[in-house]
Amino acid sequence: MGKLLYVLLCSTTLAAAEQSIEPPVETKLLARLSAAGVQIYVCKEEKGSAAWTLEAPQAWLFDTTGRQTGKHSAGPSWEFDDHAKLKAAVSTKTNSPDASAIPWLLLKVTESTGAGALSKTAYIQRRDTRGGVAPTAGCDASHLGERARMQYSAVYAFYE
Known about the structure:
By secondary structure, this protein is mostly beta strands.
């Protein structure tokens, strides 16, 4: 009985996470790309104590064949091999069903340049994250300014 309850709770949590980051129903999926890279954190003083703060992501984007198609970096921004460039802002955020992974996001595109295949993107969804959370130790007054690069992967879906 306990195992069944655990499975039901996990699937309910997954369904809630997926639902809260869905783009508007009128959007159309343009592409789904996997990402592999790091979340870069810097040790900063905040409110009188030291804490790891996200500085930027740094990841490569891959299509379903495994071919590298672009990169993801600070802004947040995405730059593709066909010269399309996107910047976006977080619209919705929900915890990953995996507590050891960065949150799932729905981002709204705020800037688009270039005429590439994804230049008409209006929303970007980040899901299926693994890793990337801030370190739990090593940031104190004697380590201010140090950086930590935490491995992560995710799936990014781009919607028109």
